[in-house]
Amino acid sequence: MKKIGILTSGGDCQALNPTMRGVVKGLENLLGDVEIYGFLEGYKGLIYGNYKKMKPMEFSGLLAKGGTVLGTSRVPFKYLDTPTEDGIEKVPAMIKTYKKLDLDCLYVLGGNGSQKTAYRLFQEGLNVIGLPKTIDNDIYGTDVTFGFQSAIDVATHAIDCIYTTAESHNRVFVIETMGHKVGWITLYAGVAGGADVILLPEIPYDMKKVYKTIEKRQKMGKKFAIIVVAEGAISKELAKLPKKERKQKIAERPYPSIAYEIAKDIQDKYPTSEVRVALPGHTQRGGNPDAYDRVLSSRFGAKGAELFKAKDFGKLVVFRNNEVTAIPMEESAGKLKYVDPDNQLIQEAKTLGISFGD
């Protein structure tokens, strides 16, 4: 009987459970009986040997359930070779747990940092298969990650709700979405929600261009505006600074987040306007997976099971050109997939009159 380890690592998302279900159902149908060891709280479970032996039937009913039944945590890759607070060497401890349980494979459901760690374990000789999870959609090598579409739906719903109250009160709303380094959620939710301005980390903004869009709407008789901004958006002035100085400036920012700074600038520019801030926050990670993510998760899980049967380890399951396939982990590990400023969707959004502050 084959012994399979599985863990969910990093930030949670809506589609972790259905992806695990897809893997287990696929393995069961391809191989028959399998022993599943679910590690609790991500890599922490692998480090400390905290797991629960699970039967395939325990993954039944997870297709529509958000979050992760195994729990998750963050074990930053940059600290992977730094001992834990109680002196445990992380990588050797993970290898020890893997070998103690005599696992045939470890499935890692996680984002960029989690997949870097997964690749490190593969380099150390473990059989590992990665599945790309992140609401940010920033894993290099895949067109889409599971969790992304569900997060877009949540963010779009938030914009829809704000839109009606903004229109009713003639207010300018600055809505901040998740996206520290990349702006995929902001881009898609902004377009889907009919934003007037979309500000991304990849496109430094000029507030004068934002003002121009607001004034253009006012001339058209539209007294409200929707500005959707990624949490990692930066101004052109800030972007010109050296990285270290830029980080310091951001750390010293006298505002809770970028949305409040932008709102303050707009309020100062238009004293008689009503400017408000809205933060969907962690709701973007929560709730249940939408239909798209349920299908994608099932397909990813099935492919993950097929890779195991073929003994094709060290691979990351990806979605490319509407097909589920797999690539060597080394092609993706350590790389982020940024929004290209020349992205076709951005150009089309500009045609529709949406400003990106550039």
Could you name the ranges where pLDDT drops below 50 across 5 or more consecutive residues? none
DSSP helix fraction: 25-40%
Work out the helix count: 12
For the biggest sheet, the summary is: 7 strands, mixed
Structural class: alpha/beta
Cross-sheet strand order for the largest sheet:
3-2-1-4-5-10-11
SSE series: EHEHEHEHEHEHEHEHHHEHEEH
Q: How big is the Rg?
A: 22 Å
Number of strands: 11
Give the strand content: 15-25%
Mean pLDDT: 96
Summary keywords:
single chain; 358 residues; alpha/beta; seven-stranded mixed sheet; four-stranded parallel sheet; 11 strands; 39% helix
Q: Could you please describe the fold and organization of this structure?
A:
By secondary structure, the chain is of the alpha/beta class. A seven-stranded mixed beta sheet has the order 3-2-1-4-5-10-11, sandwiched between helices. A four-stranded parallel beta sheet has the order 7-8-6-9, with helices on both faces. Helix 7 links the parallel strand 7 and strand 8. The radius of gyration is 22 Å and the shape is elongated.
Describe the structure concisely for a colleague:
By secondary structure, this protein is α/β, with parallel strands linked by helices. The protein contains twelve helices and eleven strands.
Helix and strand topology:
Layout lengths: L1 E7 L7 H16 L2 E6 L3 H6 L2 E4 L35 H11 L4 E6 L1 H12 L4 E5 L15 H22 L1 E7 L6 H9 L4 E3 L7 H13 L5 E6 L5 H4 L3 H9 L6 H12 L4 E5 L12 H19 L5 E6 L2 E6 L15 H8 L7
Parallel strand pairs: 1-2, 1-4, 4-5, 5-10, 6-8, 6-9, 7-8
Antiparallel strand pairs: 2-3, 10-11
